[in-house]
Write a structure and sequence with these properties.
The chain is built from 9 helices and 6 strands. Strands 1-2 form a two-stranded antiparallel sheet. A hairpin with a 5-residue loop joins strand 5 and strand 6.
């Protein structure tokens, strides 16, 4: 039946008889226009449906923003006829799946950090004081992404998780030093000042080590940099500003909400001194 166009036109098909009863054979040419035209070289099928794949790559910008821009332009310039639908898949689907997992991983990480802080301090006040550096650390990471124009990608979200860990570790140093000084008899003002002076070098060294280690990745432009660069930018920007907040804002919070000096009553029982 495929030897020629005439052979195809002559294929008989069944049609209703003149009186509406029975089936009468008629040639295909009576109901169809058979001719040679340019068409698809290959017909793709998925789930017993035909589809036409249109592929494009993203360079020089984030995947999510590029796809959203493309979706708006396509919806405006190419309305689909009835019976057709459009699906955006590929790396976008992987990105959406990763974002869904991060929506669970980030709150879980924050909850785990707070739990470990409470296990370390056994005090809700000290736990909240140490956890207060989390929003302070985010400022530097967000500012680094903003200044460099990097997108808030999966890699950047993972960088924020690492930044939280580094910042909380530095906060533990300050709060723990303050508590030790309070236990030895210092008042609040002296304990805060001594804690900041004593922990200045450890906090600075911890932050600088992370910054120097990830600085090459933060300024890289080679192959693969679009994956590692947002993570490094978040950590580098965060650890550059986090020590400033940890040694300026956190001491103020500790001075206001931290524990008071323990004094001894005449009968030998300990008592909390009033806040100064």
């Amino acid at each position: 039946y495929r030897r020629s166009l005439e052979a195809i036109r002559g294929i008989t098909i069944g049609a209703k008889g003149p009186g509406g009863n029975g089936v009468a054979p008629i040639p295909l040419s009576d109901v169809a226009d058979v001719k040679l035209v340019s068409g698809a070289a290959f017909i793709y099928r998925e789930n017993q449906e035909r589809y036409i794949p249109i592929k494009f790559s993203v360079r020089g910008r984030d995947l999510g923003g590029a796809v959203l821009d493309a979706q708006r332009r396509v919806a405006k310039a190419a309305p689909l006829p009835s019976g057709y639908r459009m699906e955006w898949v590929g790396e976008l689907g992987d990105l959406q799946n990763a974002m869904g997992r991060l929506a669970l991983a980030i709150p879980l990480s924050l909850a785990l950090i707070v739990l470990l802080l409470f296990v370390n301090f056994s005090s809700l006040t000290d736990t909240l004081l140490a956890a207060s550096v989390l929003p302070m650390a985010m400022i530097g990471g967000i500012l680094a992404l903003r200044l460099t124009g990097a997108p808030l990608s999966v890699s950047a979200a993972i960088g924020f998780i690492g930044l939280f860990g580094i910042s909380v570790m530095n906060a533990i140093l300050v709060v723990a030093a303050f508590n030790r000084l309070i236990d030895t008899g210092y008042d609040r003002a002296q304990a805060v000042l001594q804690a900041c002076q004593g922990q200045f070098r450890p906090v600075l060294m911890t932050s600088m080590a992370a910054c120097v280690g990830l600085l090459p990745a933060a300024i890289s432009t080679g192959i693969g940099s679009q994956v590692q660069r947002p993570l490094a930018l978040v950590v580098v920007g965060g650890v550059l500003l986090a020590p400033v907040f940890i040694l300026t804002v956190l001491p103020v919070l500790v001075d206001i909400f931290g524990r008071s000096r323990v004094e001894t009553l005449p009968d030998g029982e300990p008592a909390l001194a009033p806040a100064e």
